## 1
Amino acid sequence: MSERIESEARPVICLDLSRTDYQKALDLQHDLVRARQERVTDHDRLIVTDHQPVFTLGKRGGRENLIRSDEFLSRHGVDVIQTSRGGNITYHGPGQLVFYPIFDLDRMRMGVEEFVSRLEGIMLDTAAEFGIQAERSAKNPGIWVKNAKIGSIGICIRKGISFHGIALNVTNDLTPFTWINPCGMNDISMTSIEEQLQKHGEQTDQNLFSKVKKTMRRKFENAFHVNALHFDENLMPGISMEVKKRGKPSWLKRRLPRGGGFEKVRTLISETELNTVCQGADCPNKWECFSNGTSTFMILGARCTRNCRFCNVPSGAYGPPDPEEPERVARAAAELNLNYVVVTSVTRDDLPDGGAGHFAETISRIRKTMGPQTSVEVLIPDFKGRKENLETVLAMKPTVLNHNIETVASIYRKARPEAEYERSLELFRNAVETDPCIPVKSGIMAGLGETFAELHTTMQDLYDYGCRILTLGQYLQPTRRHLPVEKYYTPEEFEELEHAALEIGFTRVASGPLVRSSYKAHALADITEGRS
């Protein structure tokens, strides 16, 4: 095939990035995939880069193939990130050339098998140009020099759009590959173009990486008969903004359910002068839940002593707890014929017990009114870390104890200035130590600017401190005064997060754009009963 790109070659935008953090590149891929799916852009794109040191896990797992401890990896500045690509664990680092094609395979009328074959062929042809005779393997994807792997491949196809891609070892340090079983295999070694050239006595220079990149890009253009229009990393933020400007994505838009259930619940709450987190926090699911005859009761008033920058519950002007409120909650739950009652509250740092006694009294009244076997889930504040207040609630034997961690540690100061990440974790540990028979649950909002790696760390922290039930949902900005949405996660990304949580060990996970901490809590409790 001629090396010349013919005039009718299809244009592809090539984002030739400098060394890029892996998570940033992954987020960019997700944005581009969504932009391609929603026809924000009609252009396929190719990302060309290398990465800071990172181990990435594929769908087949990989943590079991980590030979070194997390402490060792942290000391050496190497992250571990879960991805949706195929394959097992691999390493990316400086000097390894990575190509990420975001291609519409349906429009190209190309099957996955042919796509993979062409990507492997690009690496084979590139290596051959430097005098290295690499080969495919019938058993394992990628390209090989005898028993040493020199090029890896791992792709994901989402509704016909490809992402992830190929990685060719050029000048990278191969040592980190010895800290894992690469691709899940313990009987292979890794090599690079630089190492192979040196083995044959050839001189290499500091321009080797640039030369290989130029060659591989040319091979890519020929393999797919495209013309890669070049742009540098300055376009990178522009792509994300192009996607963000479109407002809420389609999967966050839903039709309002019909029926009289909504009005019945709304009227009952109004007549009994009760508060619900559904209305106070402007929950996107309130129409569905009210129409199905359910709600989450919010006790201790309608105003909070804290001022979290993501929450729509107002703060200030609070008074003493209403002593009649527990009884009104119980009567309302009975009138709605609920078999699973969820009770939450505003945070009341002004009260000596943080409102723990009011929680206990509400649980007691519900069970006196509806029967001792009535399931009651409580979503509690952190009580400023006071264990005795937590024990007051646990003494009433709630069905599930819920406390939301909300976000990752790095965002706490911005989003929850009056809360503490470690304090919330200690609450879970204390709850399990006090009564290990009561399941512990927590919730995370995604979209405040965290990375996938930080979400994974937070999930691991929750699990390590005893939490076994987890909800993950999309943060939505209540008003312009609140923190902006930094990222809209796709349903597929929430599936990835659910998979990661289950891999960590959580036994019950609800993950989706509109999932909230108490959304369909009864269904999650049913899973509890079935899997515990």
Note: Residues 112-129 form the longest helix (18 residues).
## 2
Amino acid sequence: MFITLKTKIWLTVLSIVLMFTFFTLYYFPAQQKKLLIKNYSDEVQNLANTVALGVRIAITEQNFQGVQTAMEFVKDDPRLKFVSMLENDTTWNNDHTNYKVNSTVFKTFPENQHPKVTIESSDSLIVKRAPFVTSVMSGSVMLAFTTKEIAESQKKIRVTSLVVSGIVLLIGILIGYLLARTISVPVRALRNAANRVGKGDLKQRIEKTGNDEIGELGRAFNKMIDDLLLTRQELDESNISLSQANNSLNTTLNELKAAQAQLIQSEKLASLGELTAGIAHEIQNPLNFVNNFAEVNAELIEELRPECQKPEAERDAQTIDEILTDIKTNAEKINYHGKRADAIVKGMLQHSRTSSGQKEPTDINALADEYLRLSYHGLRAKDKSFNAAMKTDLDQSIGKINIISQDIGRVLLNLFNNAFYAVNEKQKEQRKEVTPFQKVSPLYEPTVSLTTRKLENRVSITVSDNGNGIPVKISDKIFQPFFTTKPTGEGTGLGLSLSYDIIKAHGGEIKVESKEGEGTTFMIQIPL
């Protein structure tokens, strides 16, 4: 339940006024009455003791007029109801073994009063007794005063309390009004202004500010609005600057994308060039076989022609059969090597065309082995002096797996090219270290290894070399775009970056392990 500050102020003031009224009208009068009665009773008791003392002295001196004078000691007090002298009589039983004391009224003033011996104090009367003992008689003085004066005093106190309570109520109402006006009204104005500021209106101001805490709050509110306006202006200026910077960044980003697309295309063309060089050398072998066997078949046909021109009876059937068998064998070899050349050409076309993005069953062993040899021959096409050993350990249980063969081929070709480049550079460094009259140390043999394994739910492809390795300080950067360890003009720095993206797109991972001076191993794992 929401209670306004104004209501809380009024409730607080009224609570204080009501508590004060309760104490003024009820508690204080009741306490005052008790105090008045106590004092009044003490006073009556003292008067009774005084009268009893005078009576005792007068009786002792047998001055009976003095008894009257002692009893009239209080006759002028307007509160006197009566004063009586009681005589104590001792009454014995018949055998004088027991007695009781009876009191009888001996004398009373005023004489028209006839009080009972057993009368006690009440709301309208205060009765006190004072005993006396003489050799002549013993008894007590009973003094009674009315409480009319106490009632009148209490009435005056209540009237005074009522007037004071009324005055306090009026003062409380005035204080409540002033508090509500000086606290609730400014706070409500501040709340309304804050609500409008929360909706975006920064033109709000607290106009009336006093010299108290509420005034300080209003001035602090105005300062806050000024600070917000200044901040908004700075934000607007910053937004304009950011918008301009954003436009500039977008333009730069578009230019970078275009440059990246050109670099990627250059990387692909460079890869295609190296592949083409490898294919040219790789395809030369089957073409040589085709040419050689075609020439042999032509010679065999020339040998067969004279035999076929002879009469049937003179023909040598065995010779003809042997020649035909050789021709058939050579034709089969021509067909085999022609298909081999056809497969190489198809692989080149497949590598050069844009990837379709569709996975298809692929013999990963054949794909890896083919690109290993093509990469090797591509490097030899550039450097006739280069030579390296190729070691393969292929797991034949893998079979075909669903991959985008063009993309995985690019990854493998890039890894093989890097491996052959690394061992070639190390071989060149060793050649530079020897004199013209020394031979190159036979201890180093450039070697690139390919290993495939079928694991539980994935295929592992490992490409290793025994080159110079990758320095530790740059091992974390090799998969970053445009980062390359090759000299300027020999690498774009996109090969490993693209390879990383392709493997990730297949749901796999690619890792590298390297030791400086010993070699590098790239490990690819692709889900089955």
Note: The chain has a mean pLDDT of 79.
